[in-house]
Amino acid sequence: xxxxxxxxxxxxxxxxxxxxxxxxxxxxxxxxxxxxxxxxxxxxxxxxxxxxxxxxxxxxxxxxxxxxxxxxxxxxxxxxxxxxxxxxxxxxxxxxxxxxxxxxxxxxxxxxxxxxxxxxxxxxxxxxxxxxxxxxxxxxxxxxxxxxxxxxxxxxxxxxxxxxxxxxxxxxxxxxxxxxxxxxxxxxxxxxxxxxxxxxxxxxxxxxxxxxxxxxxxxxxxxxxxxxxxxxxx
Length: 234
Fold this sequence. Notes:
By secondary structure, this protein is an all-alpha fold. 74% of the residues lie in helices and 0% in strands. It has a domain at 23-99 and 144-216: Up-down Bundle (Four Helix Bundle (Hemerythrin (Met), subunit A)). The protein is globular.
């Protein structure tokens, strides 16, 4: 018999779970993941702001140098998100633990590709009847968005670094990075809410297995992280 049966009911909504209180052990796991993500996002955001500021002030060489670091920090954040989302899916597949789900809102995204992905995810959410399928749909959508945003971000950085500020130091590339930053923040916040809801229904005896899954290497190699590393060598 499970030590807790929090995952057996359908009484909760995302709003109720988000404002609910986690048991101490679950709260520690939540705070560990969120603090790690917050730190990674803050470093990425500050680095990008500095690069933008240098560019606007005319320090193009220093700006491009800063972008190389920013791309690597973007890759680090994306890898953390990929690992977290993968862990929740893997645990769901093995134990059947499913949180309350709220579909993605396309209005929360600025990029066309991200907004289209959110619309597609929203439509599928309406067609899918089981909470398990809805959960997998949202996780898959977030993982796909994070990869695409990261890839577009690194491609823009690569173009700016390679240009030496001569031909393609264009506002369009900076816009890609700015929009990507916004949408990646949305994915990050959605993932944090999803984690809180997941831990709210995670039985006590499943907490350690969930943590063990999190210690394992990610099943998929991060394209974004590899791309950022390649830019850094140039």
